[in-house]
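thought: user wants a sequence for this fold. calling inverse folding tool.
action: design(structure=
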């Protein structure tokens, strides 16, 4: 399956994917989940990204896509082979 560009920061929480476009960060998505669902905290979530097709990619999958499409900001530090929104925007 061909990888496509990263377009959104995303979190899978309780079986549903929540996402926001750049320049949002994962903490912005957490804030949105709390606002929309009324939960007190977001635990047991899976943080990742959406690609151009709307497919959820975890941080490990997303780093491959971002590298393939030269989306990683110059000078950005990659930690433990995981992608963070700070690496993109």
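)
observation: tool returned 89 residues.
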């Amino acid at each position: 399956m061909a990888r496509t560009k990263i377009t959104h920061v995303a979190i899978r929480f309780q079986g549903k994917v929540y996402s926001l476009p750049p320049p949002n960060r994962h903490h912005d998505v957490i804030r949105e989940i709390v606002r929309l669902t009324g939960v007190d905290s977001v635990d047991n979530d899976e943080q990742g990204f959406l690609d151009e097709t709307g497919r959820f990619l975890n941080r490990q999958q997303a780093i491959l896509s971002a590298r393939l499409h030269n989306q990683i900001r110059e000078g950005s530090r990659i930690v433990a082979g995981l992608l963070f929104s700070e690496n993109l925007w």
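thought: summarizing for user.
answer: Here is the designed sequence. Residues 6-88 form one domain.
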